[in-house]
Amino acid sequence: MRRLGPGMKKSKTGHSPEKAAATGALFKVGDQVRVRDMPYMFYTRSQMYTRGVAGTIAALTYKDLIPEEEAFNFDGRIEQYYIVRFRQKDLWPGYPFDNDTLQTECPHRWLEPAKN
Amino acid sequence: MSHTHSHGKPGADTHHKAAPMVEEITDYEVLEIAVRELAIEHGLFTAEDHRRFTEWAESIGPAAGSRLVAKAWTDPAFKARALKDGVKACKEIGVDWAEPTGVGTPSDYMEFHVLEDTPTLHHVIVCTLCSCYPRPLLGMSPEWYRTTNYRRRLVRWPRQVLAEFGLILPPEVEVRVEDSNQKCRFMVLPVRPKGTENWTEEQLEAIVTRDCMIGVALPKPGRTADVHPIQKARRPVESSHQEAK
Questions:
Q1: Looking at beta carbons, which residues of chain B come within 8 Å of A47?
Q2: Of A50, A114, B41, B85, which has the most beta carbons under 10 Å away?
Q3: Which residues of B are less than 8 Å from A107 in CB distance?
Q4: Sign of the alpha-carbon dihedral angle for A94, A97, A98, A101
């Protein structure tokens, strides 16, 4: 069950813009990004199959707590989330359909700029 | 815990012991019961609160989602609003994502996107992490949506999994998997099928089933229910520990 604690209120209303800004300039829709391959402790929502793969920013969604901290009820860092679009061919070797795509969400810290 | 059934083997004993009421309970179910009992004991909520909430949550079905799709098909201005701000558009069809707590249902977030299909783009939704699903709009997710089989295979083999649901798409249609594993919740707005030109919103609602809004089926005239026939294995695998008992 999701706790109705200060973290939730903070993310919807009075979150600190400085904290989000401290993680670097935001990406824009259309930017090429790569999912970083970082270690994590105990919990993450950034799936292994996207690590190290390049994709395109499809949307900026919201700013909220990062899952790695929220999972432990810790009012930690708030970051911009993005929907990233990947070509299935880039995710899976030998994927047979050129047009197919996959989208998933990532918080800012999991993305780095990718060269075309 | 294992019980021995000899599935129709010739010469096997025909005496059947009473099956246990609960075949299997997962560690997480045990954990949920333990935490719930502790919470009740400590007065965080009452057993009555828990029962009421569970009944409320279980009573939500996919009907509101069908209404949203039918309205989007018949009212272009509403469709534009739904694509722009899903949560706001839901209010117009009587669904408030803030219920019942003021900030949404537990473990759901108030971020909701409607994904519009076109003749050359087909969306299908999965949550590889767990079972994220737009519950305020579509109710509880179907059992198969939560299985590891669907979750791990849909991202890797989407066309094959869709084919297992009876949906075979030509290669020129882009299949776009939406892995809903963070805080946004998603629903598919399918293409309005041919043969429904003069239909009323009510007629349209009837063909927009739950599976069409997840993206594993397409709406069509005459298809008003999601049916998943269970094909029993003709030669079931018998596990060795059962044999040994």
A1: 128-129, 179, 181
A2: A50
A3: 182
A4: negative
